Amino acid sequence: MITHLIPHLLAFTNPLKPLEHLLQHILVWLHVTVGFTWAWSIVALTVLVRILLVPVTVKQIHSMQNLQAHAPEMKALQQKWKHDKQRQNEELMKFYRENKINPAASCLPMVLQIPIFISLFYVLRHFDANVLPHYGGSVGWLHLVDITQPVKDGWGPLLLVIYVASQLSSSYFMSSTMQGAQRILLMVLPVLFVPFILKFPAGLMLYWLTTNLWTTGQGLVTRRLMPKPELPEKRSSRTPAKDEPPLESGNGAAGAPTKPAAPARKPVAGPPRRVKRKKGGGGAKR
pTM of the predicted model, to two decimals? Predict the structure, then answer.
């Protein structure tokens, strides 16, 4: 009796099991009702997921643009407190709160896709046993790869090369506001992951390839259509404060501050000046 309960207990303890069933039902609906092949059903599933993530993606784009606009100020804070990492983090957190910046928003769409990626992995892993016997259909994609087979088989390496290229292009748009070391790491990670994904089902690579192409196209479109946030006004020591009127030269209005008058210059002491008297009257010259 206990052996019969083990599969149910495992299913209960797996929090992604409901999402796995949901993705499987969507794929079956796209294949049976809409008429897509299984491979193109995965592509359509990817598009549906990205459409649902559009509101989150818009927040991501605004957050990245906001970070880019305030990048010089944040860099100045980092340079000012480079010898005190704790104070540097405190000042950056304070700066984020004052300017309503959420650095985590730029990673939110990717984080939300991780459970979908894992659930789709399990759907394709048991696809031959759970789906194909009931619904049939071809599991090929462009007569090149079998979506249930590992990427390393057949033409799978070609799909892997396209995936890496698409991942690099999408990472380029996602890392435009990151620091140099972080951007290099994000660009190198797709290449480092290649040995680990060789045993993944080709359908999983097809999902990630589609979402990378979506991200690349989305980056191109938003760069043209979405306005960039206005840069903060640069102030200097000569810029008057907003709550104080500027100083006026000359005869300003009543109550306006004016420059104090220069003190009168004192005459320089010297010998007395001689005065000539008019001739006549027998007066003598002094």
Answer: 0.67
